[in-house]
Specification:
Blueprint (H helix, E strand, L loop, with lengths): L3 H19 L6 H5 L7 H7 L6 E5 L5 H8 L3 E6 L2 H13 L5 E4 L5 H4 L4 E7 L9 H11 E12 L6 E2 L6 E2 L9 E6 L10 E6 L4 H10 L2 E9 L10 E3 L5 E3 L7 E8 L4
Parallel strand pairs: 1-2, 1-4, 2-3, 4-5
Antiparallel strand pairs: 5-13, 6-7, 8-9, 10-13, 11-12
């Protein structure tokens, strides 16, 4: 099935979001420019020492995390579908005098634009929901990894995406393994709920089984799958801050975050 029209709708929405997010308190550009990392504890702990590693960041938005990895000593490339986001990323890279490469393309087409092999392929927080099928995504990840390299994803839990958040209170509306695209149209954006922009978005739900199976079938060995109650971001309704500054559901009825680490075998 051809999803080019849906990708184009999403690209236009993210082009509008990029400038709004860049100026938002959510992304805290003032402190980021002064050296504050944009990374959270999950990815920092999982990746460890990345100095001198080659890292590919998929769906990098305007490059904050990519540039944070570069500050930690990695040689980074960031990819995103939004040309406005990539323009801001390149501008920020120049302002900070870093040496990151940014490429504008649909993440599924990454191998057509990036030929290098990487020690680490990374993606995080609100990325795979923009993709209709994870098999070509996983295949691309395997193509871009060096033998012995690893892929890491930290992402919002698929149960959280079963709810329609455009109504209050949210209602469980979408299937855990739903194949059909989900279209939503609403005012504002998570980084600025008061913005007058209208977000028009197509998304797809992906179960943990689909994530794991897609990566495994692409030749990656799953090292772990972990699930967590606590999110670094207060983007779902009625979350409460815990003692570590993370955000949780009061009843902890379902996890908000999962992470997967998968390695490409040396012989693959």
């Amino acid at each position: 099935m051809n999803h080019s029209d849906k990708f184009e709708t999403n690209r236009k929405t993210w082009n509008t979001k990029a400038a709004i997010h860049f100026e938002s308190d959510f992304y805290d550009m003032q402190n980021f420019r002064k050296g504050k990392t944009s990374l959270n504890k999950y990815e920092i702990e999982a990746l460890g020492d990345i100095s001198d590693k080659k890292l590919l960041h998929l769906q990098c938005h305007f490059g904050q995390d990519t540039l944070s990895f570069a500050r930690m000593g990695a040689k980074c490339t960031g990819v995103d579908i939004s040309d406005e986001g990539i323009m801001l990323a390149k501008q920020l890279n120049a302002d900070l005098k870093l040496d990151v490469s940014f490429v504008c393309c649909n993440v599924l087409d990454t191998s057509e634009y990036v030929s290098e092999k990487f020690d680490i392929v990374f993606t995080s927080y609100g990325t795979i929901g923009w993709l209709p099928d994870l098999k070509p995504w996983a295949k691309m990840i395997s193509e871009r990894l060096k033998p012995g390299g690893f892929f890491y994803i930290v992402e919002f839990h698929p149960i959280a995406w079963m709810f329609d958040y455009t109504v209050s209170p949210p209602v469980m509306k979408y299937g855990y393994q739903q194949k059909e695209a989900i279209y939503e149209e609403y005012e504002g954006t998570y980084a600025n709920i008061d913005s007058e922009m209208v977000s028009k978005e197509y998304g797809w739900n992906h179960s943990l089984g689909e994530v794991i199976t897609s990566l495994s079938e692409a030749g990656l060995r799953i090292e772990y799958l972990k699930e967590y109650d606590a999110s670094p971001y207060d983007i779902f309704p009625k979350l409460v801050k815990n003692d570590e500054g993370m955000f949780e559901l009061t009843d902890k009825m379902y996890p908000l975050i999962f992470e997967v680490k998968a390695k490409k075998n040396s012989a693959t």
